[in-house]
Structures are given as structure tokens and as C-alpha cells.
Design a protein that fits this description.
Helix content: under 10%
Order of helices and strands: EHEEEEEEEEEEEE
Number of domains: 1
Strand content: over 45%
Radius of gyration: 20 Å
Distance between the termini: 35 Å
Structural class: mainly beta
Largest sheet: 8 strands, antiparallel
Length: 245
């Protein structure tokens, strides 16, 4: 039986280090002089797998209006912790869309994603939040990256690791659903990269009004499914039903 090292997808604590923040504008200006940096969403931290490096995520406003709606480019980079020199980076134009379901945050995920012997990936999580009170929605997706020489490669993209939604009357009665996904890493395959197993747990809740002011909530369903993600020589393929649409 193949054994998997389970990763609970919990975020490692942010390391308090001021030096990375002073390079953010310089990196953005050097790499994308015609785009404005969305400073409220920028994240950076020391790489726990290599303290000589800094990881950073730069969201850039490609065509964003005054309300924050539009498309954001995303540059993920690895830099030298002392000099701030960029070692490798990966840019995706219009990587994030923000509309009625708005782009609401970025997080660096440095859990132990040991995808191959001697090769540890790190993650970038992208959060979206719905604007409707009676139809609440929230989603968080995960991308994985590895440093490959002077290049930074995205080896997995747009895996939804958490999602919540619902429909209610604004007072009590309604139905709500939540899905959580965790990753487990198996043994290395023939090409050196491990198979990733995704475990999905979905739960549903219902709220009903009892009497005049007693709102009762109960779980109405729970379901667990698993999916295997295999490396195809360039990246892990993620089934469409597990991606952010």
C-alpha cells in the first residue's frame, strides 16, 4: 500500500522580517514599470526551506477600476535575502479576476510540499469573497511553485482548497455548504515527482426558525471524496471540478 505524508494545508506563521518589504516597490518597478502595484495585497516572507532567500507575491493592476474590480497580474518571485536581487520569478497576466466576487487576499503557504527528492514547493493562496449578504460566498485557491535553476515554475494551479456558499433569508432560514480539501504526498514516481492525493470533505447545514426567535442549525449532509493528481512532466493536472471557475 502506498503511504502518503498528509499535509493539513495549515499556513506556517508569518516571519516578522522588515527587509523584504523595502524591496517590494523596487521589484515591481523593475519587473513591471508600466503597472501599478496593489500594495494592500502584497505578501513576502523568508523562505523557511532556505533562509538565504525571500519569497514574495506581487499583485499588479492590469485593468482595475477605482472600486478594485478588474484583472490583476500576479508575479511570484524568489530573491536574495541580503541584496534583494531577484533569483527567479513567474508572472501571469490577468491571473486574478475581481468583480461581484471580489479578490480579497493573498497568502504565502510554506508547508512542507516535498514534491520530489530534494525539491520542495511553496504555495500561493488566493482568496475571493462574495458581495451578497443573503448569498454568501468565499473561496481560497492554491498554486504551487518550484525553483528550477534560474526559473520559477508553477507546477499546480487553481486548486480550490476551501469554498463556502449559502442562501438564506437574512434572518435565519437557509441552506449553507462548505468544502475543505487537504493534500497528501506519496512516494516519488518514475520521474521523481510524487503523486498528490486530494481528500475532499463537503458538509451541508440547514437553519430553520423555531418559534419566534429561536434559530436552529443542523448538519444535513457530509461527504468525503478523494482525487489523485499526477505529474505529467511539467505540472500536476487538476480536474476542472476542483478549480476556481
Amino acid at each position: 500500500m502506498r503511504r502518503f505524508a498528509v499535509l493539513p494545508l495549515l499556513l506556517a506563521p508569518m516571519i516578522a522580517w522588515g527587509d523584504c518589504t523595502q524591496h517590494l516597490q523596487t521589484w515591481a518597478q523593475d519587473l513591471h514599470p508600466t503597472l501599478e502595484l496593489a500594495t494592500e495585497f502584497v505578501v513576502c516572507k523568508v523562505n523557511p526551506a532556505d533562509a538565504s532567500q525571500v519569497l514574495a507575491v506581487l499583485p499588479l493592476m492590469v485593468n482595475v477600476d477605482e472600486y478594485g474590480q478588474g484583472d490583476y497580474g500576479l508575479d511570484v518571485l524568489v530573491a536574495d535575502a541580503v541584496s534583494g536581487k531577484v533569483i527567479a520569478h513567474s508572472y501571469q497576466e490577468a491571473a486574478i479576476a475581481s468583480d461581484a466576487v471580489r479578490f480579497s487576499g493573498l497568502t504565502l503557504d510554506t508547508a512542507r510540499y516535498q514534491v520530489a527528492p530534494g525539491l520542495r514547493a511553496f504555495g500561493v493562496r488566493i482568496s475571493h469573497t462574495g458581495s451578497s449578504r443573503v448569498n454568501p460566498f468565499g473561496s481560497e485557491t492554491l498554486n504551487l511553485y518550484v525553483t528550477d535553476g534560474s526559473q520559477l515554475r508553477q507546477i499546480m494551479g487553481q486548486l480550490v482548497v476551501s469554498e463556502s456558499n449559502g442562501e438564506w433569508d437574512g434572518v435565519c432560514a437557509g441552506e449553507f455548504g462548505e468544502t475543505k480539501r487537504t493534500l497528501a504526498i506519496g512516494k516519488p514516481g518514475k520521474d521523481g515527482f510524487s503523486r498528490l492525493r486530494v481528500t475532499e470533505v463537503s458538509t451541508g447545514r440547514q437553519a430553520v426558525l423555531k418559534g419566534e426567535d429561536d434559530c436552529e442549525e443542523m448538519e444535513v449532509k457530509s461527504r468525503t471524496k478523494t482525487f489523485n493528481l499526477d505529474y505529467d512532466g511539467a505540472r500536476y493536472g487538476v480536474p476542472k471540478e476542483l478549480t476556481y471557475q
